[in-house]
## 1
Amino acid sequence: MTYDRFLNPEVVAVPPSGIRRFFDLASTMKDTISLGVGEPDFKTPYHIRNMAINSLIDGETQYTPNRGLLSLRKEINRYLSGRFQLEYDPETEILVTVGASEAIDLALRAMVRPGDEVLVPEPSYVSYSPSVIFAGGTPVGVVTREEDDFRLKPEYLEAAITKKTRLLILPYPNNPTGGIMEQADLAAIAPIIEKHDLMVISDEIYAELIYDGKQHTSFAIQAGMMPRTITINGFSKAFAMTGWRVGYACGPKEIINVMNKIHQYGIMCAPRMGQVAAEEALRLGRENGYEDVLTMRESYDRRRRLMVDSFRSMGLHCFEPYGAFYVFPSIRSTGLTSEEFCAKLLREKSIAAVPGNAFGPCGEGNIRCCYATALDKLNIALDRIAEFVQEVKGN
Amino acid sequence: MTKLESCLLDLLKEDCRLPLEKLAIMSGTSLEEVAATIENLEKRRVILRYAPVINWDLTDRERVEAMIEVKVTPQRDMGFDAVAARIYRFDEVKSVYLMSGAYDLLVLVEARTLRELASFVSAKLSTLELVTGTATSFVLKRYKEEGVIFEGEESDHRLVVSP
């Protein structure tokens, strides 16, 4: 039986993720050291796991309110105001979702109208553009350049805006580049958002993973931007809770209301045990100064320095990433394309990295390597990559 | 302890063969400063030795280990220190700890054979006049030491490649 007649051609037309293809290849190989992961190498801290176990034992297995447990939303409010000076009303302006991914999807589906253009800085996380398409909009890539530390520059933003532009996705700290936007960078963007009457989806999932004394600044606290911003965050990266699938969206109640409508019909609520665990993560963090987060960040930072330095000593240009847990070195000097480089590296040295073009055409020429991997493995991987680069350049 | 010292101790505890260059990069400081800090830690006897964690069970070396709970009579003015010193001077003794609870000293002993170990307890340890009693437990299997799990690696449950 052929199913063409039953499938939505617009969905079928969206190409599969470039990462997916690579995943299929990499997972068939044995003894691969993977720098292709996109999640912490820490387990969720014990006290958080234990809280969820206790909640299950106590029989807390029911639905929660659509918007999430009110006690969790209150903790989210305290966390965001304490950490990033963001004030949201737990009753009306915070929505707990199944990971930050659902929050992004909801924000797009709540706001995008047919034919709307949504600006997506590139390179960035692979899901934005497909989600825009699924929401009925048209994704428009905005170039960010290594010369600008992969920051979104006002001139490139302005140049991409048309009459149809309605939304900007602002993904900083950035996956895959590790680029960040500091206060001055955000302040330069805000007037353009105002001038063209746009909304912003600010994906701040990596907000806690920022290094070298830099501070994360939320876009919503820029002058006049609170009513124009949906702030997205979650627990996956900062608290090593990827598998729990708990994220949240915060913004003007009018938009959160509509997002909640889709969420309530489509999902009902995020899993209760995940919410209980997330609440514990924030509660204990508030009490002990986010000890777990800081310990993990410290550990990432050491490995980050090692990665950057190692790529540079291989003779590869490597931009200094101040956020997330990726480095994004340029492999242009090897004469290979990103995909050739990664495929050959996987075949010949059993190291998996992700080709930069998976994150948008302007990621071509780079590869994404995650440093959330045990130090001994990281050292082996770096030695093998060094060997590989030498062999490739030698030919 | 400075932040740098704490960072270097963490890293060396994980892998004491990390070269100075890597330690410098990872701690974000100069080679000279790392070298000086480590030397200082050694001089202050914070770092005592750089020793690997060995799984002897995978070698053909005969080796028995025991943990001995020792009750002693503390001495006037010296407390437990003097008797602990008498005990830790034996080559067979790998570690000695003063413990709270039902006994006083925990003594970790290593010998090549059971006979050797038995003779250590009966001939050397028990005969010390301040030792009032011992209870010896033999180590049957070692699962984890110094944070390292012996059998099988902890598996990485993460996807090989993810967005």
Note: Residues 31 and 86 of chain B are 42 Å apart (CA to CA).
## 2
Amino acid sequence: MKKSVALFLTLSLTLAFSGSVLAEEDTEATTEAVTEAVTEAASEETTEGTSEAAKSAEEKSEGVMTYAEYMDAELDTEVVIETYVQAKQSWWTDSETGKEQATFYTQDRDGAYFVYNLECSEEDYEKMVPGTKIKVTGYKAEWSGEVEIMDGTFEFVEGGDEYIAPAVDVTELLGTDELLDYQNQHVEFKGLTVEAQQDAEGNEVAFLYNYDGSGTDGDDLYFNVSLNGETYTFTVESYLCDNTTDVYNAVEELQVGDVIDAEGFLYWYEGVNPHITSVTVAE
Amino acid sequence: MRHGWKKAGILAAAAAASLGLLTGCHGSRQTAGFSAPEKFDESREYEIVFWAKNDTNKTQTDIYKKAIEDFQKLYPNITVNLKLYTDYGDIYNDVITNLSTGTTPNVCITYPDHIATYLTGNNTVVPLDGLMADERYGLGGSSLNFDSPSLEEMIPQFLEECSLNGQYYALPFMRSTEACYVNKTYVEALGYTLPETLTWDFIWEVSEAAMEQDAEGNFKVNGQNVLIPFLYKSTDNMMIQMLRQKGAGYSTEEGEIQIFNDTTKELLYTIAEHAESRAFSTFKISSYPANFLNAGQCLFAIDSTAGATWMGTDAPLLDISEESLVEFDTEVKMIPQFDPEHPQMISQGPSVCVFNKEDPQEVLASWLFAQYLLTNEVQIAYSQTEGYLPVTAKAQDSAEYQDYLSRAGEDNDLHYEVKIQASRLLLDHIEDTFTTPVFNGSTSLRNAAGQLIEEVTKSERRKQTVDETYMETLFQDVAALYHLDEAGLAKAQGEKQDLGPLPGTAVILLASLGAAWALILLALIWQRARKRR
């Protein structure tokens, strides 16, 4: 009964308002124009501010770890870092809890940080374009060899500069222990040969949907490449690069024996397992 | 080979929004209740969509494809379009998204817990009682173009798991349980003998004994600097089974939440103790138990029997490099028990449901395909891909399946010993299995059960204090996170609640609105009266 009364009264009020709203349309349009103008002005101010801050970009704020300190930190300890978004993997809402989370590949000028399931609204996720500086507080963890930050929260670094990490050529480090030093970084490989894999029917193929070919278009792509007689598995991670991206389509076009250059993030899963973002077949 | 890196479950915002729509059913497309046609119209063409789940296993996807191919030969007027998933959660989320727009698949692999949520929409999932009993098209029906099991040939416990509110809303497809995959070599090297039935005390004791390190910091038992003696894949199952074995509360059939009790707390303290020493960890925190087991870095790995092909030195599926693989004897044991004389273990595995559509003939075509998945051809082939068990006595008792079981260890592929032992474990203990009550909200409760273990484990690793205050806060936080608090649950169940007296501000607002409306009416009457004059 209470609900019905409230509903009736609210409805009547809404109807009463609707007439006056029509009359106020002009006023609203004016307000919108003013708001836009203010936003634009603010945006200009921010851009100017950014270039000023860039000069002190390597400085960490108080209480923030350097990359070296982060690497020295014990697993399962709280870490606080400042880093720059390099790529966004996925944003999702837990259907049971409503918790909004996202996973990011991030890097500063000294090293990289994989930030797994960071608490992040969809609105903020949209703002996290590559280069955006963020401060992350979370716990250092290791999962199948991948060192990451989990259970984290973040804030945008106001006035922070932008930084896009250049791809570091680690081709010569493939198969060496030194490669681990570049974990999660934006890297590139040159002159790799695409090796054959066998699908379930025993056919030689250049790539598989899922690690064993159990997937379909849209799933992760797995392809093997070799260098100096050693074979490595590379992945096009479908949350990072879905089947509409150039890299996904390029890998689907690969032929066994192709010599390729590839770029990506040096992810780890029981050994090196780069998440590839770009593939070019050598001429 | 890659078992799969840790992916977050992706859920589009739309799915969450749809869930809200679904519970209220406002704006969602309604379908009339299904009424079975008397005869299947074979003169018409049907196109049905089947959403299936595989364990990232190519053989399983091939079996689905072959089943479709064979079915289409029997029913050339039905085309089945397959969409593959590797995660139940993704199917659940996609179904929720599609329920509100009436674009659900026709047939879908599912968990009964999920069906409880789907049923919050009107006539979304077809009740199967009538179809199952139909003389012509039901189980073992006379007009079927294939050899279907009769109702009596369904394993009753497995079928019962698909019953909600007194009606069947799904057919079981495959069943599994959890098993403890043991590195027997290391357990014996520590001076222990594996008992016939593992107990929790035994596992904790051996796990702690395994933590002894040498002067260089390597663990004596494996000579490596990495060791997690006891790893559990699904902590929700861990808590559920522990509580069940203890006879402690989890939930009632009606959905009353009982998990936040003293036994739960007591179990969490024990788990915390071994998490602190690092003798115990979980999949979410560390990684797949199989990877650690196969690298000689785990003694007790608990995972589904449907994960048996990844377990052991000779496992046909491996995620770790050959160099990391360690030689050891693998023993497949029942999960640890508190009362070994009365073992209890969970029954799990995929079921299949049929979604309602406007056209009853289309639904009947869907039912025929769902039922085809129970034929011996599909049941036996699929069960052999992992440590699954067929859900029909017809398949279990068949000469083909019995021959398969008898050849355990003949090779490390189809007859991989660990896999067949895992299937046998369930086969020998069907009577000892149980499932948890299914209700709208049971998925959340299951997740909360696991979350409790994950949280105490993480907290101990992070050197946080786990005491009474911690436990109280943990219970409150987890209850709130999963909306298991009293009000949240009642809301989830759609119960009407007395919200008590209105707050003062609301009374004032309502009174003002009432007064305003009365004034408007008075003004109108006055205006009319003036016009008449």
Note: Chain B touches chain A through 56 residues (CB under 8 Å).
